[in-house]
């Protein structure tokens, strides 16, 4: 067994690997960038090595620095986690050439499955069904448009080196193809250094089904059943579960056998995932499931497979990398219960899912709700703009699907996060959505139901009542402008407490009529006001100012950069008339493109944003002057 290990990753996956390594007595070495100097994975590892500036291209993605750190600390092996260098065949080979153990598949297998077009061609040759499409070398936009028309709309444009939903666009009509292709290629080039794309048929009622496979160096390959990852937004997974709802025994046998055949075709060793797309219009059927791609690494959603099989996949990775055979045969693996995982992202759902960065002043994940929590952050830490916005994975298991969903919804509703915004209430809403609860899922569900899933932008009456009661009852310092500083309503013979208060969330003034009979939510006094958390949504409220006036930049029509990034497109000019919701500027940040839109009808003024320019968080990009 490996005795010492360097983890070439960060965040929750680094902490997850450290946990199993400690159980097995393996010494761990973390690496970190400037932004991660005080990160949780750095503190949990036995040793940590600084590898460069905050930008991943100068730290976590520099293979030579990672190998040098392993050598300097005496680590025997390198585990890449997922993302970063995990599917970089050149890096894997460099690790092996340096005399270190690579905890992952053979470099040749990574290469074989690394490009989606080549992988599909190989799978087709091996007898694994693949979706129809164009996977050739000709990248001329006009030619690709012709191929799309030949395949038939809607089509999906996908970066051949892509992953995580990046470099992927669905196109419904020929008129939209050119713009979607250009955007897809820009994102692919920025994320993967490769703008090459493929075109494939877009399945109308698609379900994303994937199978966990595992191989060893003794020629054994097994599957650990399937996961359903159909709940996605912009092709990024949001909620995953195992097993897949509606999967009968015959279809399961067919898809899992195809996955093992796919892994065997590339002589696979270690943990991997074969991803399939299924046409769910008539339920899951073996003849309507096609190979999509292979992820030659551990998956973000691996915990749900662990929960239903009782297997520690990271432990299996260590044992296989150490030359041991797989711990179990196929006939020793079975499914017990149901597991569901939700990805908690640092993002403002109501603002179009814009990533949210900054300090985690108040952060408590599902206190008392049970379940399994995977995270790489803690209260007092920071969410950096340099990396993926996922801050935790919440996992619940039950004897059946309904029980697992109910437990996970309770976990999501108990999340407390401030001032960084997160998608906890969105997740809770999604878990309670009737179609999802019934198992009627597909990759378009979130887009169709987005309005009903989006959390409230203003606190509920219960939240307002709770804060108002805390303000009136006092005992904590109040803002200097508070009109309630002189209240004495809690003492005998003192003036009666007010029955009506005005509170503000910084954007709106809200009038509250106190109701003594109402229940209360917990309220804590933070540096910026009274924090109340309800169903995973958090608000800070204060007594409203008595001098009137609008609150916040939105009221003035000022468009600020929500985070550091690069302006890649400016779609308006000074003096142009725009309508509410119209795209103004496209910002590239946290490896994704984000469109900033007009808050109301008006006219563009003071346009400062320039295509190609770098911007910092809070920088004024332009103003929208309201129509008189």
Description:
This protein has 628 residues and is α+β, with helices and mostly antiparallel strands. It has six domains: 4-103, 3-Layer(aba) Sandwich (Rossmann fold); 117-131 and 207-336, D-amino Acid Aminotransferase, Chain A, domain 1 (2-Layer Sandwich), CATH 3.30.470; 133-201, ATP-grasp fold, A domain (Dna Ligase, domain 1); 344-450, ATP-grasp fold, B domain (D-amino Acid Aminotransferase, Chain A, domain 1, 2-Layer Sandwich), CATH 3.30.470.20; 461-543; 553-626, RNA polymerase II/Efflux pump adaptor protein, barrel-sandwich hybrid domain (OB fold (Dihydrolipoamide Acetyltransferase, E2P), Beta Barrel). Helix content is 26%, strand content 30%. It contains 17 helices and 36 strands. The strands form nine sheets. It has an eight-stranded antiparallel beta sheet. A five-stranded parallel beta sheet has the order 3-2-1-4-5. Helix 4 packs antiparallel against helix 5 (107-114) and helix 12 runs antiparallel to helix 13. The longest helix is centred in the N-terminal third of the chain and has 16 residues, at 177-192.
